[in-house]
Specification:
single chain; about 140 residues; 4-stranded antiparallel β-sheet; 3-stranded antiparallel β-sheet
Amino acid sequence: ENLTIGDSILSYSPKTNKFFPSKIKRLASPLHNNLVRIHLSNGDSITCTKDHPILSKENIFLSFSPLKTLSLYKYDEVQKLEIGSSLRHINGIVKVIKIESIPLSIQTYTIVELEDSNIFIANRILVGTETLKKE
């Protein structure tokens, strides 16, 4: 929530398996409801929209609602996030152990576009930007 356009953040390249700095080009902070909290095998968790893309161990994006992700954002492939999915974490690979529905309205924050990447870190988990298909 404290990021601004032009800030440099840590991004990730699946091709090189390396982290590197990338500047933020666009941000969004909409109010959302019906979020999910994803609990991980290392004790971490992330609360996000059901359509937010999260990077898997295989460098494929996953989301709780892949059809919605594909219809809204600039991704060619998104698979179903479920219990047992293996995700990329800054400290290695973690597994999804629980997915919990959060029915409240909550202020959310995301990066819409980065200068040199479409992968960034949120709560120590590698996730994708949310560049809309129709802008």
